[in-house]
Write a structure and sequence with these properties.
Rossmann fold, Nucleotide-binding universal stress UspA family protein
């Protein structure tokens, strides 16, 4: 599979977890691991960067001693610098929160920024990682923009010999209008059948391309963020797509990807639509 796995580090504990996840992923792919520390000014001197990169090498030696590693210091706004530098990489991995920001925030500005800006898949890793992960979860919505996320999830599951749990959620529409309006006639079984068909059609071609991947298809009536988080509690990653926009410079995180980045207990992969 090869390619390059790009990871941003800043000395925080969550960046350390992201680095370990990225190192194992690069090792599994036979890819180079490119480690970057971004200095944004102030007291972030060359010695500060060198110390972070030295500690990063110790982490890599512990989890993936044979992986090829390159390191680099960059300067500027971290999210934009990382997104631009990783544009042609297989993926960009960051911690869900870094050393900056306010205590209590679940999602850091860098993770949020790169998930919006990057042209490659972005994986945001929380701390701690799931100790034993034997599945990949992907959210399926039936849109064309979702295809890239499904493909990434199949490839990830195939690489790790993991089960793929494909989840499609739906909710019952809420009637509105005059209080004396006729009640909404709603055939739940018919809607469930239609939504199951959307899921099956979305997966069909990918299953042919990855015949060794065991797929669990689940159509669930419920809130998409809560449902995907529950389904992915023991997953290697939960994969979602980023909305397609006319402006490729600034992407758009939908409510599902945004919610999972904040709350998921496993790594979240946000996959941009094709250029």
């Amino acid at each position: 599979m090869a390619g390059e796995v790009f990871v941003g580090v800043d000395g925080s504990s969550e960046a350390g977890h992201a680095l370990a996840w990225a190192a194992r992923e690069a090792d599994a792919r036979g890819a180079r691991l490119h480690v970057v520390v971004v200095a944004v000014g102030g007291d972030q001197t060359q010695s500060w960067s060198d110390d972070i990169l030295d500690r990063a090498q110790l982490t890599i030696n512990a989890v993936a001693p044979d992986v090829e590693v390159t390191v680099e210091r960059m300067d500027g706004p971290a999210a934009r610098v990382l997104a631009e530098a990783a544009a042609s990489s297989s993926m960009l991995v960051v911690g869900r929160r870094g050393i900056g920001g306010f205590a209590g925030l679940l999602l850091g500005s860098v993770a949020h920024g790169v998930a919006q800006l990057a042209e490659c898949p972005v994986v945001a890793v929380p701390a701690p990682e799931v100790p034993v992960a034997d599945s990949v979860v992907v959210g399926v919505d039936g849109s064309e923009g979702n295809e890239a996320a499904i493909g990434f999830a199949f490839a990830l599951a195939d690489l790790h010999g993991a089960r793929l749990r494909a989840v499609h959620t739906w909710t019952q529409p809420v009637p509105f209008g005059p209080a004396d309006a006729l009640p909404l006639v709603y055939d739940v079984e018919a809607v469930q059948a239609d939504e199951s068909r959307v899921l099956a059609e979305s997966l069909a071609g990918w299953q042919d391309e990855h015949p060794d991947v065991q797929v669990e298809s689940r159509t669930v009536r419920g809130h998409p963020v809560r449902t995907l988080d529950a389904q992915a509690s023991d997953a290697l990653a939960v994969v979602v797509g980023r909305r397609a926009t006319r402006n490729r410079v600034i992407g758009l995180l939908g409510s599902v990807s945004h919610g999972l980045l904040h709350h998921a207990r496993c790594p979240v992969a946000v996959v941009p639509p094709p250029a």
